[in-house]
Design brief:
About 70% of the residues lie in helices and about 5% in strands. β1 and β2 form a beta hairpin. The chain has a two-stranded antiparallel sheet with strand order 1-2. It is built from seven helices and two strands. The protein is mainly α and about 170 residues long.
């Protein structure tokens, strides 16, 4: 019985320390608040069921890998549903147009999904390349290479460097 209490305490501590980061990850993927909450609930349900597999020293990359897998499964399911709807109705389903106007966001959106993912993990989710490698299921060296290449592609996708106080500066992600 004491072991169960230790697991519960460990889970509660992990939840308190990582909840906001996991939720931020979900929101940065463009999920509505309710959908983000559902994703976070799925992640922590898996973490509770597989608590023995969750790294004790730094659980966040493992949790974000679970979130990424669930999010991607959700995207695939949604795409299948849209595709089935199109086949059944023979009318195109229109996506709402993004109206951000933000040059950086537009440049980011123009990148391949793999580039966006590594940039978001490092810039938005504040992971190191080593931690991002765990989320992406690759080696730390591969994650660093992917990050370098994604940064280069993002720099090329930006129309012009951002000017600030008379000096020319490039935005870094």
């Amino acid at each position: 019985m004491i072991q169960v209490m230790d697991e519960e305490t460990r889970f509660r501590r992990m939840f308190q320390e990582t909840y906001s980061s996991v939720r931020r990850y979900a929101r940065h993927r463009g999920l509505a608040p309710a959908d983000a909450d559902d994703l976070v609930a799925e992640v922590f349900t898996v973490a509770w069921r597989k608590l023995d597999r969750v790294p004790r020293d730094n659980p966040l990359p493992w949790l974000l890998a679970v979130a990424r897998n669930h999010w991607r499964n959700s995207l695939r399911r949604s795409q299948r549903e849209k595709s089935a709807h199109l086949r059944l109705t023979a009318e195109p389903v229109s996506e709402p147009a993004g109206q951000t106007g933000d040059r950086i966001r537009e440049a980011l959106d123009s990148l391949p999904a793999a580039d966006r993912e590594i940039l978001q993990l490092v810039a938005w989710d504040e992971l190191t390349p080593r931690e991002a490698a765990v989320v992406l299921g690759c080696t730390p060296a591969a994650a660093r290479v992917r990050l370098h290449r994604a940064r280069s592609r993002l720099a090329k996708a930006l129309p012009t460097p951002v000017r600030h106080e008379g000096r020319q500066r490039e935005r870094q992600i």
